[in-house]
Amino acid sequence: MKILLINNHTRHLKNLTQSLAGHEIEIQMYQPGLEFNDSGKDLIILSGGGGEGLEIDDQVERGRLWYEDEMEFVLRNKKPLIGICMGFEVVCRAYGVDVPKMDKLLLSQTQLKTTKKGKNNLGYDRLSQFEAHQWHVTKAPKGFDVLAESDGIEIIKKGNIFATQFHPEKTGSLELKNIVTGAFC
Predict the structure, then answer these.
(1) In angstroms, rounded to a whole number, what is the distance separating the alpha carbons of residues 95 and 177?
(2) Given phi > 0 = left and psi -120 to 50 = alpha, else beta, which region is 93?
(3) Cβ distance 179 to 147 under 8 Å?
(4) For 71-160, where are the E strands, in sequence order?
(5) How far apart are CA 69 and CA 33, in angstroms?
(6) CA distance 181 to 185
(7) DSSP secondary structure of 64-81
(8) Is the distance from CB of 149 to CB of 104 less than 8 angstroms?
């Protein structure tokens, strides 16, 4: 499979590339104005962030969000897409949902409860996943199914978009390699 990995300055790039072993991966480091090279790709992955300290509300200039170009790309994209952590937040914000900051940084293995649709799609009642974020989503974008929750929404799906607030490239019940090869997209 040919994958375009948009690197949102993740600290977990090594884990991502190891999880995607066996696939042809092109990595593009995100910055405003990026021309997304999705031609000939079968799948788009939006990574987590954190490596540069840029968050979902950061602005590149007054009135323009740092991730605004990526949000516009998400809205016009027709290919299967997986959003991870910051990528999840970009998907949610692109579809008009607020992504508020939490009181503290979540940096731990967390227990997630799947919804009825989540259990049907994923085959799990509960998931144990690694989380590293300080932002969360409490309302799903319109038309998206919520598949798992904890302190906020953890997995959403709509058509060919599958997004997780947690890091499936790290330790957990639901691994990125299985999401990529599964029928989740």
Answers:
(1) 26
(2) alpha
(3) no
(4) 81-84, 101-114, 126-135, 145-149, 153-158
(5) 6
(6) 9
(7) EETTHHHHHHHHH--S-E
(8) no
Q: Which domains does the chain have, with CATH numbers?
A: 2-181 (3.40.50.880)
CA distance 7 to 137: 21
Residue 134, both tokens: 């300080």
pLDDT for 13-69, tens place per residue?
Answer: 999 999 999 999 999 999 999 999 999 999 999 999 976 768 888 888 888 999 999
In the structure encoding, which two tokens stand for residue 125, read together?
């009642």
Nearest to 171 by CA among 137, 127, 114: 127
Identify whether the C-beta of residue 148 lies closer than 8 Å to the C-beta of residue 117.
Answer: no
**Rounded distance, CA 1 to CA 90, Å?**
24
